[in-house]
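Quarterly update from the structural biology core.
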Amino acid sequence: MLLGKRDSHETLLCTKDVYSKSGGFLDSQRSSSLPKEKSHIFFCYSRADGEFALKLAKDLRQAGANIWLDQLDVPAGECWDMVTEEALINSDRLLAILSPTAVQSQNVRDELHYALEENKKIVPVLFQQCPIPYSIRRFQYIDFTIDYEKGLKQLFKTLNLKITAPTETTD
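Predicted structure, tokenized:
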């Protein structure tokens, strides 16, 4: 069983078992939305930076990157903690979106530490000026604070993606 905080007022319990209508527990099946191989980029960010993360994820997907972002890849009815943990485990890279709220987030720190412990490639993205966490200061970051397009081009190059002009999203 996983125990995760949804917010400061309620607690979310998630289990790997589902209680059937006939009165017994059934083993649940892993969601088909979970990444199957270690070839995707896991987005690590603060929920407060969700709009930026979503825009960046859509631009990277459009360019052919295999990314995982909870906003796009956790299906309704799935346990966020379990699906996110599975995606992190099965990733080969972690894209860390850094901002003042991100560096204060326990989830962001946990995901960064896990990636470091597992020797995953970390690509820091500086979204807003903030102190870079000590554990990743040695990594070169990509600066998005002044010019999104310039940062995106640098990120495409880092990820070996074809540079294309991002499209404006209306949603």
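Confidence is low (pLDDT under 50) at residues 1-36.
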